[in-house]
User: What shape does this take?
Amino acid sequence: MAQALTDFSRLCVHTITTKPWPLEKAAKEFSAAGVSGITVWRDTLAGKNINHARQMLLDLNLEVVSLCRGGFLPALEPAKRQAAIDDNLKAIDEAAALGAPHVVLVCGAVPGQPLTESRKQIQEGIAACLDHAAAAGVKLAIEPLHPMYADDRSAVNTLAQANDMAEALNSPWVGIAVDVYHLWWDPDLENQIKRCGQNGNLMAFHICDWNTPTTDLLNDRGLMGEGCINLKEIRGWVEATGFTGYNEVEIFSHKFWAQDQHEFLNKIKEAYIKYS
Amino acid sequence: MAQALTDFSRLCVHTITTKPWPLEKAAKEFSAAGVSGITVWRDTLAGKNINHARQMLLDLNLEVVSLCRGGFLPALEPAKRQAAIDDNLKAIDEAAALGAPHVVLVCGAVPGQPLTESRKQIQEGIAACLDHAAAAGVKLAIEPLHPMYADDRSAVNTLAQANDMAEALNSPWVGIAVDVYHLWWDPDLENQIKRCGQNGNLMAFHICDWNTPTTDLLNDRGLMGEGCINLKEIRGWVEATGFTGYNEVEIFSHKFWAQDQHEFLNKIKEAYIKYS
Assistant: This one.
């Protein structure tokens, strides 16, 4: 079990978590609430001057933990795969401009295309981005997604697969984002976290909870402590690898998005200390 | 890839698939449609004389493929675990009375109880049923469930785990039910099916499809061919082990249950030949 969290020095919140707030509002509120880090989703940057956004976050003393998200690399047609690679190169540029050390990859999958083929295309797509990533000084974090997203969101569904892929790519510009929502059920999770850390690939740690019942495959994530995930145990495994990065609160929830976001942010802080 | 299916000699339909029909109606319709096997869900037996049900199915020339379902063995309190074992013993008796060669186990899980503890309780619970199973001549089929059910339905979420458990129990009265809906995403599936067959544990094969998008975690299964599951490939792996049992159509679907069940049964037959 991890040691209790006693302050917010490692608390990061994803902008998607407080989706109703635009970037400026979220940043101001996070900062005022004592949140230390922010993970910026690309939708919040649309039409914005990223240099200004970077300066705003600096002024608010918020560390940019990562940019979400790149990926979606598999496609049936080569032209679409190239378009996906181009979009990932753009995401790398955006991360560099924003000062984000890495881009999180939701790797993608094509319904009906064999998962083995999608995985091959993912690995090739990431490989095609590595020179650009190195030049920009931005890393790429493979995020294994829950098997319930294997149809159209990610053909990488376990930490073992992500470890295999990161090790095969064997680049200092590739690592892994560990999200408890996607991985908590895996009987091999402790071992795979250990392996991920030992190989220098553990780049990010995302937290939330799994509701029982879960009413929506995408947007019914729970606040830490509401569900069944052994969060403190998993954080203990992550920290045992030497990881000292942020605990990133990433919650997609129609329920919470419909609530007052100030109150929700207070709930996040309370749950972070009590249950994370 | 498996060879094409050309007739209905190995087609089994679960009573839950045509949920609006009571047992008698389902049996008559299945038989009239040329379906060869039936898997009976216990809810359809409630309040019925099982010997009469057995005779009815014999008269209709329907083979009873299995009884669904036992399991739900983990619980926080020992008394509840014992109650679960007692219910499984009852399911074994029902299967014996009905002439079903095995009971399918949805093993169970308790939200918040460590999965490792639930797995231990599952294995102990099955072990406690084995003498009774042997005496009744009824086998128990562990069904690994999709990881999205790890919170409250099953702590056994991969075929590797089911293989481990069946091999540890090491009894001729324990085997495994392979369901494509739960397992299709698993990168190790081909190997684990091979292992399952080699150890004599492959007892049942359930088919349906995975819809994109899936709108409900429980009751939005697709008809074969509607979704992204590599069904023919998986059936090929299953048959390569020497499996010659039924292809059991098990579809939970609010959508199909709301339709005319005769038309749905026709669709099942068509999809069975075309896509299974």
Summary: The two ends of chain B are 11 Å apart (CA to CA). The first strand of chain B starts at residue 11 and ends at 14. Chain B has a mean pLDDT of 98. Chain B has ten helices and ten strands.
